[in-house]
Amino acid sequence: MTATHSLAAEDLTLAYGERTVIEGLDLLVPPGRITAVVGANACGKSTLLRSMSRLLAPRSGRVLLDGKAVHRLPAKELARTLGLLPQSPIAPEGITVADLVGRGRHPHQRVFSRWSKEDDAAVAAALDATETTPLADRAVDELSGGQRQRVWIAMALAQQTDLLLLDEPTTFLDVAHQIEVLDLLTDLNRTRGTTIVMVLHDLNLAARYADHLVALSGGQIHAAGTPEDVLTEECVRAVFGLDSQVIVDPTSGKPLMLPMGRHHTAPRADVLQGTSGS
Amino acid sequence: MTSVLATPAPDAAVVRRPGPVRFLWLLVVVGLLVALMALSVAVGSRGVGWSDIVAALGGSTENIGQAAVTKRIPRTVLAVVVGAALGLSGAVMQGVTRNPLADPGVLGINMGASLAVVAGIAWFGLFSATSIVWTAIVGAAVAAVFVYAVGSLGRGGATPLKLALAGAATSAALTSFITAVALPRGDIVENVVSWEIGGVGGATFAGIGTVAPFLLVGLVISLLSARSLNSLALGDELAAGLGERVALARGVAALGSVLLCGAATAVAGPIGFVGLVVPHLCRLLVGVDHRWLLPFSAIAGACLLTGADVLGRIVARPTELDVGILTAIIGAPFFIAIVRRQKVREL
Question: GO molecular function: any one (chain B) (predicted)?
Answer without folding.
Answer: transmembrane transporter activity
